[in-house]
Amino acid sequence: MRVLFMGTPEFAVSSLRRLVEDGHTVCGVFTQPDKPKNRGHKMTFSPVKEYSVTVGVPVYQPASMRDGSALDLVRELAPELIVVAAYGKLLPEDILNVPPYGSINVHSSLLPKYRGAAPINWAILNGETETGVSIMYMAKELDAGDVILQKSTSIGVEEDAQSLTARLAELGAEALSEAVAALAAGTAQRMPQDESRQTYASMLSREMSPVDWTRSAHEIACQVRGLIPWPCAATDVIGGAPIKLFSVRETGEETAARPGTIAAAGKQGIDIACGDGRLLRILELQAQGGKRMTAAAYLLGHPIQC
Known about the structure:
With about 300 residues, this protein is of the alpha/beta class. It has 8 helices and 17 strands.
């Protein structure tokens, strides 16, 4: 099938690679414009552009999808199908309606739950034990189109958003492969979403970082896991200045200490009292201006007396 692909981050590369491996004709790739990175402000390609260049797929980076030039380009490319995976731009209906097979999206949740920009993060933040991917027809309303198929997976007890994103990228590519094959064969399903069950996964912000130790150990653990790699949960109870938390563990141990109190610090990590009377163990952290390291390594230079 002749496919126009639209995507930007590493998550989308898996789906694009699978389309290429399945033998589809990828007539072009739309991705976000190059952006300056680090202090040198060197312009860098998106992961999707980097991969596209290596396999010789034409790359287009329109600044806007809402002017006539984007629509003209899509019509000129004449795709039979548009596939979108974390592109980062909203597509107007006139573009969605160009391909005869329609436009479909690889979404990293079990719709209608977690529509929106950060479904993987919010699934972990809310303590979900299962998530998955949905391949759906794109509609005018955000993530509200009919579903072609879904694949589910469990969320590991200590799995963070970064590692879950990598797993869902591969699961999404597998689901996409099946969906495109079904479209070509004329056997693709159209399952309307149950609007009464829809939830929204809003964009993350830095304001979500501070840890409130009056919450339960489980809630804080979900916060830490759900905010990796950005913006990261942070606390100032360890060294007085905000320290990012990268890995924690619910010990299950009870404590009478006031929430936010360091109960123990050693080779095993740093144990902090939470609002439910249980301890949360800090395993990996990053101090301001420092590198990510184990809590044990941090304590070598910053000993804590409990």
